[in-house]
Amino acid sequence: MAVLFTLIILLSAFLLFQIQPILSKEQLPQFGGGASVWSAGLFFFQTCVLLGYLYIHFIRHLRLQWQVTLHFTLLILAVAVTYTHIEKSILDMLPPTWSVIVSLAAQIGPIFIMLSTTSVLLQKWYCLLNQSPVPYQWYALSNFGSLVALLTFPFFFEVYFGLTTLKELWFFTLTVLVTLFFALTTLIIKKISQKIWVNQIRPTTVIFHNHFRCISLAALSSLLLSSTTFMININIPPMPLTWVIPLAIYLITFIIAFALPVKSRSFYSYSALIFATLAGILMYFLGSKFNAVAQFSMYGLILFICTFSCHRELRRIAPNQYSMTSFYVCIAFGSVLGSLTSSVIAPVTFNLPIEYPLTLIAIFSLHIYLCTQSSVSKYIKLGYISIFVSFICAFVLLNNAYTKLNLITERNFYGMLTVKDITINNTIERRLIDGTTIHGYELMTDISSDNGYYHKNTGVAKAIEVLQANGPINMGIIGLGAGVLAQYGKKHDTITFYELNSAVFKVAKKYFSYLNNSLASINVKIGDGRQLLATEISQSTFQQDAIVIDAFTSDVIPTHLLTIEAFELYWQRMHNNGVLIMHISNNHIDLMPVMANQSLRFNKSILLFDYQEDENSQLGSKWVIMTSNEEFLQSMPVSTLVDRYAFTNQSTAQWTDEKHSLLPYIKL
Q1: DSSP letters along 261-303, please?
Q2: Which of 58, 59, 276, 567 is the most exposed place for a label (fewest CB within 10 A)?
Q3: What is the pLDDT of residues 79-113, one digit of tens each?
Q4: What is the rounded distance in angstroms from the CA atom of residue 431 to the CA atom of residue 435?
Q5: Which of the 8 DSSP states describes residue 321?
């Protein structure tokens, strides 16, 4: 029977954490590929875990045979309603965060709650059946199953299977779990009927009283997990890999903390915490300067040290079996508080993601408090307190220096926008910054058009010039930014911007002059560019001459704009000689193999313009142009005609909505 207990715990944990990246990835295209999808999803998942633990807590006084029968019945009902969908029109009426949550709740809410109870419930049943202490090592075993699910998804399942296939495989595995659960239920009821166990036991040890400490530790570790993931996804495209690595580290610290014997706090643990807090504060201000691997490594190390410290404290206060459910409910409640703060409260409270450094400082302060309650030397206590005060002062000074040039900062579900006025060589440069990346700027004291972000040497400027040589053009641009491309519009031209984030449009109109001063007829449509194009196609709107894809969130281009289905929309929206212009500048992802493969599929020639930054403040950029318009190709100035077949030997595949992975394209 112990083997069956173990197998069910492992399989349940695997299913629990395998479905999280599957459904979160499925949600991305509906919300512009934003990083906040995962934050909202994490809040939902942790809320389900809390509901599951509360369910266990409320049924703990039932006789064991009633617990087993009730649980198996609810499990069957939950399976029956899995993958229920809600109409998109209903979801569109909700704010983005709650739309994600409601969609996930409809699809897997009941079954996720039931799966989340498995480890704790089976621990409780095992204690009752065998009159044994709590097998806390099973909690580590459950986290191991979760870890396997997380790490195999981006490196195996996502690479080789589409989303629909993965959902079908997941549901099949779920039926296997239900079968095993039925077998366990039968064995438990049989053992009860044989009366070879004692039903009631009286507690002989102290009841759990550390509720506040437990909730605080769990909340801070959960908040750090969510905020760390958000910080990573500011510069690296939101994808399962960037979600599961932090979550895997979080689980690893749980595994180690609950598997190792309880020991007293050491000098080395506090030293590591000091390092992590200082490094985290510096990464908050300077993290975007590092490449993808360096960012992953540093954020991962900081997360490991801090969450491990919190989880070791949780293990120190873990109670006996009579208060076990209270302990797990406190952990779950704290985790929900942490993810709620990150996904719902922080975006409307802070204009910048300062919840990340504040969480690090809060974790350090909590451990300082625990240190002051122990019997260490008063000089050591004073030293730790002095370091804590130094961290506070350092953060305040750095943050003031970092934000003193800000004219405005806005943050919502889709990202963070900042407008800064920076003086360079006696010239005021007004910049629009999304996350950590410049998305356009305007010279406030110099009318030179050659010193802009989309200057005349870029691929997009040259392409527009060639198109305009044949008369007025009708052009669509996905991604507004500061509206810089509007300056290239001539009289009788029509330019339609498709912008996901309404805050971007407000900032572009109020703080930059490009939209107001353009000679072209300017239209701005708010919503996901791909969905807006599909709507226009269905309405038989007049076809466009060119489409520019310039949609970024910080340094990230949403992957759903690069799939086969997306390219099919682009070509349908343009006439036969249409020109597709794509901005693929990225510090962390090499998108050229994807572009080459798509051009092969649609039989389009592909040009590459890779302009390097110069001393005149003209920023470097990388543009790809696809078309079958021979007249356009012959008229283009010198560029690089890409050999599309040069990329066929790489481990690349056609990207579809169902199946695509950024893993092969990460710049190391």
Answers
A1: PP----HHHHHHHHHHHHHHHHHHHHGGGS-HHHHHHHHHHHH
A2: 58
A3: 999 999 988 888 888 988 899 999 999 999 999 99
A4: 12
A5: G
